[in-house]
Amino acid sequence: MSFFEGSLYGLEVGGSCSSGDLNQDKDDSNTESGNASILNSRMALQHFSHPQHPLVFNANERSGISCQGCWEPVWGPSYSCITCKSSYHHKSCAELPLELQHPLHPNHPLILTKGIKKYNKCVDCNEFRFQYIYHCSHCNFSIHSGCSFRLTIKSAVHKDHDHSLTRIWKLMKFTCDFCGKEGNLPFLCVPCNFGIHTSCATCPPTVKVTRHEHPLQLTQSLEIHQSNSRICLLCVKKVDTHWVYYCSICDFIAHLHCSMNPRNKAYKKLEELVEEQLHLSVDPATYEVKKFTMGEDGAKIVTEIKHFTHDHDLKLTNKVPNNIKCNGCVRDILPPFYCCTQCNFFLHKSCVELPKIKRHPLHRHPLTLNYRSRSFSCAFCAEECNGLCYNCQFCNYDLNVQCSLISNTLTHACHEHRLYLSNTNTKQECSSCGEYRYRVFCCATCEFVLDFRCAALPQTAYNNQHEHPFILCYKPEDDSGEYYCDICEEERDPKQWFYYCADCNFPAHLECILGKKPNVK
Question: Using CA atoms, how far apart are residues 307 and 279, in angstroms rounded to an integer?
Fold first, then answer.
């Protein structure tokens, strides 16, 4: 079998999808019959990644949702599951051959599979990415689907090199003369002994990332010696490569691979779609003003509102009840806040004033404010939550209020240096709780890491068993060597954060003060 020949997915066109294949349920005739009608009129295929239902062809997808195969946004011709509203694929990714005979691994065929952490490190780009890979289980050989097809390029000419670059069809260790990182499969200029990664050979001169407002220019790192920073502001790691992406206006530096990572890269069509959706938002208000008064300074004070989260009108008050939490952010109620006089419903004034639609630097689509009485899992802190949340209408993505308010940079009392948001393909260990997360805040000076859960912990908390407020503490209260929780009377780990009342010398575990589900009311 020759290079890239293999068994393609069986395409099912028109009425070739039988009722048995579609698993239709007669009791749910409205939805299923509608889906069957669509399937009978559109091309569909059965895909290994989604065996429950066939994927249906869409000639002009415009959601920009991530492709399950390559994690790039889906535009134009695509396949997706119309039953589950999921499993979006570019047409090219959906129709990849299941089996591949590749010149880099001629002894065994490579099988297309989902990327799994234990074996999805690509022999070409040398990175872990959650995209489809071609894998040989006998030899533990893996190559990303995108990298495997880029290898069909026989030669290339890079704008910063005068000679033609030729693909070397053999695994060999080398150091890329463009980014300075090690690799296995170079494009090589024999006369100059110049070697470069496949990905570096295709780096564009300008790139836009979601975390920065200006385009970044491809720049030789030696040319930015005037920069005050040597830290990539996407992964918060040291910049020690020959070439970088750089914004001279803001002194913003980023690694090549970080800028090109689908997690960080901005796409023009998607940016246009986001702006269009924000502009076309008909009713961005979250509440209707019922009554208001004028303050002494002439400012308008809204005293009664109708909020979208509640059936009754809410009135502004400063009288704080005992042990009551906000129904929006599930934090202790502090004045000023709005309350319902008919039932036990409270909202901070700040929660009432949250924008209906907002953008977040870690998500491609605009997020819409919703209210969930049932629990949901926050995409950032992974905590079970309810109340107000920001939701993406395209993705299975929810974000609680506390995490949504944290910006790209963070100054936290637990650490002396400023922390920067990092979003990479590799999990990092939180220095506070020890959990491993993809989205964390990192220190550019030292190795301190903080996840969203710890970053969002309230600095002050209350407990109905104690009259004074508790303050979040990061180091042991003394050097006695014996540390216990005065609520549960169990031993405390001195390396873990805790809550402390200095008036009473009263320490307590986080969960003893906040509860096992602090974000659920």
Answer: 22
Model pTM score: 0.75
- Cα–Cα distance measured from residue 283 to residue 18, given in angstroms and rounded to the nearest whole number: 44
Strand order in the sheet with 409-410: 409-410, 419-429, 436-443, 449-451
- Cα dihedral sign, 53-399-421-220: positive
CA distances from 165 to 122, 156, 158, 312, 405 (A): 22, 5, 7, 70, 48
421: nearest Cα among 257, 254, 218: 254
Please tell me the total number of residues recorded for the chain in this structure. Answer: 521
Fold held by 458-521? Wheat Germ Agglutinin (Isolectin 2); domain 1 (3.30.60)
Alpha-carbon distance 476 to 20, whole Å?
64
> In a 10 Å sphere around its CB, with 0-12 CB exposed, 13-18 middle and 19+ buried, how is residue 22 labelled?
middle
Stretch 410-424: mean pLDDT: 91
Alpha-helical runs (H) found in 348-492: 349-352, 401-404, 452-455
Nearest to 370 by CA among 326, 328, 325: 328
Phi/psi of residue 259, nearest 5 degrees? -70, -35
**Residue 275: which pLDDT band, with cuts at 50, 70 and 90?**
low
For residue 409, give the amino acid letter: T
Contact 317, 304 (CB under 8 A): no
Place of tokens 């938002």: 281
Separation between Cα atoms, residue 213 and residue 210, nearest integer Å? 7
Q: β-strand 409-410 against 419-429: which pairing, if any?
A: antiparallel
Bridge partners, 166 (sequence order)? 155, 188
Residue 208: other Cβ atoms inside 10 A: 18
Q: Count CB neighbours of 249 within 10 A.
A: 10
Cβ atoms of residues 284 and 369 within 8 Å:
no
Instruction: Kindly state the tokens that stand for 422.
Output: 């990092």
Q: Please report, as a single letter, which amino acid is at residue 286.
A: T
* Window from 10-14, 258-262, 266-270 with minimum mean pLDDT: 10-14
The DSSP-derived string for 162-180 is SS-EEE--S---EE-TTT-
Domains of the chain, residue spans: 11-94, 99-150, 155-201, 206-266, 287-352, 409-455, 458-521
Report how far residue 380's alpha carbon sits from residue 197's, in angstroms, rounded to the nearest whole number.
Answer: 33
Q: How far is CA 359 from CA 305, 367, 392, in A?
A: 26, 6, 10
What is the distance, to the nearest Å, from the Cα of residue 186 to the centroid of all Cα atoms in its chain?
31
Number of other residues whose CB lies within 10 A of the CB of residue 156? 16
CA distances from 299 to 292, 294, 295, 296, 354 (A): 10, 6, 5, 7, 20
Dist CA 135 CA 144 (whole Å):
9
Contact 451, 430 (CB under 8 A): yes
Q: Which helix (H) or strand (E) holds 450?
A: strand 449-451
Report the pLDDT value the prediction gives residue 417, as an integer from 0 to 100: 93
